[in-house]
Write a structure and sequence with these properties.
Layout (H helix, E strand, L loop, with lengths): L1 E2 L1 H10 L3 H8 L3 H8 L6 H11 L8 E2 L9
Length: 72
């Protein structure tokens, strides 16, 4: 699973709000909701976030291996 918890930490460090992302950078509300829910987003959105925040992908996303499904 790709987890976006690091995005919120990076935004806080840089003093950036979700309002600023929406109003000043054109990231729509649905995309922000998807980021909060760790759902799929387009790579162009990741590129835009890195450019806006002046960071790299590991500053906004982390890969966490899925838990194996139990074999019952």
């Amino acid at each position: 699973m790709i987890c976006f918890d690091r995005l919120w930490i990076t935004m806080q460090k840089k003093g950036v709000s979700t309002y600023w992302l929406r109003e000043k950078c054109g990231i729509d509300r649905k995309t922000i909701r998807r980021l909060h829910a760790n759902e799929n987003i387009e790579t162009k959105t990741l590129n835009k976030l890195c450019a806006i925040l002046g960071c790299t992908l590991p500053d906004i996303a982390e890969y966490i291996p899925d838990q194996p499904e139990s074999q019952e």
